[in-house]
Each structure stands twice: as structure tokens, then as C-alpha cells.
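Bit of a strange request maybe. I'm writing a small parser for C-alpha cell strings and I need a real example to test against, not something I typed by hand. Could someone generate the C-alpha cells for this chain?
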Amino acid sequence: MEISVTKLILAAVTTCKETVSGVPVFYARNQDEQEWITKTLSRVLEAVAHDLGNGTYILVRH
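Reply from user aminoacidic:
Good idea to test on real output. This should exercise your parser:
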């Protein structure tokens, strides 16, 4: 039997330091930088980016 982990939060990208903890966090200076970091990390990590709507994106492996 093979066991695998699915739907794993790999990282978060935010502009607000107080909103995220418990995962690797990348801080951006503004929204443009945040979107660039999110897009780049999603490609490198082969993950899907989800906008939480509070200035934070999470990168999830499905």
C-alpha cells in the first residue's frame, strides 16, 4: 500500500507580516512584487496559487 500526502500548503506570499505563520513566508513590498513572487514560486514548486483575499496568497500542491 502506498501512502502519499496531498493538498499540502507549501508557502505563503504576503504584504502583511502579521497575517501568516506556520509555513514558509515570503514578504513582498507591494502588490506587484507579491504577484511576481507568487507566479515564480508556483512554477518552481509546481503548485497552485490561491488568493485568500486578505493580501495573502498560499501555494498548494494538490
